[in-house]
């Protein structure tokens, strides 16, 4: 089976078993972008607490967050962990928006995907996974997100080594799938759900997994 057909089969099997994911949670593109930065090295439950505190402080917009001191921003996002570091990263992201896009996230979304990705990767603290998450989920750009779950599933299925570089892992999907943000969105979300529920780091439930038939 060629790679395109294989990935289409993976997608169909997961979607049939799990149904649509409706991910990423967030009321606005800016909230989603903030969540993508806050979720680094923590779980979503902690991110949600930080987002709630930002909302309660009416600080979940570019203008409002830009007006906060570094100390106040760190205080509000404390539940997400590494809060001082993440406050610096959020402020660097805000600087990109304010300095180059007049504070408008929508203006960044008007860039072509490659340019927007380059701009995001130039921001201190935004790596490839965070950049692709912002591009795909906040900006609606066709940039496939790969993560530890993707790496684990593909390596256990003998498709790629576990230590494959990020961009090579990303290209495994992007080289053969149509550039469709909605497809990339759902595909990545399904991979995360399978990774959490079945393809666990320890004690995986391979026999019960929707992808069991694809195991070597």
From TrEMBL:
Q: Which residues form the HhH-GPD domain?
A: 38-197
Question: Is Nucleotide-binding a UniProt keyword of this protein?
Answer: no
Spell out the molecular function terms from Gene Ontology: 4 iron, 4 sulfur cluster binding; catalytic activity; metal ion binding
State the Gene3D superfamilies in the record.
Helix-hairpin-Helix base-excision DNA repair enzymes (C-terminal), Hypothetical protein, domain 2
GO annotation terms (biological process): base-excision repair
Ordered alphabetically, the record's keywords are: 4Fe-4S, Iron, Iron-sulfur, Metal-binding
Q: Read off the InterPro entries from this record.
A: DNA_glycosylase, HhH-GPD_domain, HhH_base_excis_C
Q: Does the keyword Iron-sulfur apply?
A: yes
Q: What is this protein called?
A: DNA-3-methyladenine glycosylase III
């Amino acid at each position: 089976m060629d790679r395109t057909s294989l990935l289409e089969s993976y997608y169909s099997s997961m979607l049939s078993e799990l149904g649509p994911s409706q991910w990423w949670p967030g009321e606005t593109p800016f909230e989603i972008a903030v969540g993508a930065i806050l979720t680094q090295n923590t779980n979503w439950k902690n991110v949600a607490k930080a987002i709630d505190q930002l909302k309660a402080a009416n600080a979940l917009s570019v203008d409002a967050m830009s007006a906060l001191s570094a100390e106040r921003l760190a205080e509000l996002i404390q539940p997400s962990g590494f809060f001082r570091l993440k406050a610096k990263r959020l402020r660097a992201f805000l600087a990109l928006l304010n300095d180059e896009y007049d504070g408008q996230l929508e203006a960044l979304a008007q860039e072509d995907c490659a340019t927007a990705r380059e701009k995001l990767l130039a921001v201190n603290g935004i790596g490839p996974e965070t950049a692709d998450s912002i591009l795909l989920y906040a900006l609606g750009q066709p940039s496939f997100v790969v993560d530890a779950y993707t790496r684990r599933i593909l390596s256990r299925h003998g498709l790629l080594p576990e230590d494959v570089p990020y961009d090579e892992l990303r290209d495994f999907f992007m080289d053969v799938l149509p550039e469709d943000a909605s497809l990339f969105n759902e595909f990545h979300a399904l991979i995360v759900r399978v990774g959490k529920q079945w393809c666990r780091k320890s004690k995986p439930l391979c026999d019960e997994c929707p992808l069991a038939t694809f195991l070597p």
